[in-house]
Amino acid sequence: MKQTTKRKLIYSAIFAALLVTEILIGKYAHGFVRAYIGDVLVMPTMYFFVRIFTEKFPRTLPLILFIFACAVEVSQYFELYKVLGFAPGSLPAILIGTGFAWEDILAYAVGSLLNAVAAVCFKPARTA
User: Fold this and answer.
1) pTM of the prediction?
2) Which of 5, 14, 25 is nearest to 121 (CA)?
3) Which keywords fit this entry according to its UniProt record (predicted)?
4) Among 17, 53, 65, 80, which is most buried by a count of CB atoms within 10 Å?
């Protein structure tokens, strides 16, 4: 099996495990776990999803994803879901989010640090 195929399988497995964890947190968890651990884990979930498809930007990807997460959070501050005409509780509103919180940005920063560690641990294979 080629090294890149093996890596993609590893990234896919990690992504799947994180996604299932996120879904379970969203469905069953309360308090600290739901409020913070879910937001921390969303960053590695996105990181490994992107890494399935590309080996580009392994060292800058954590920063790119952090900026993306902050942009989504800022859109919640400005209630983008209302601007776009989505009803509260609708799937698009849930995906975009409806509530801004500084704590979420801090959780994304912690998750981005985990991504930086992953970028070092899962270096792309060198080509000869």
Assistant:
1) 0.85
2) 14
3) Membrane, Transmembrane, Transmembrane helix
4) 65
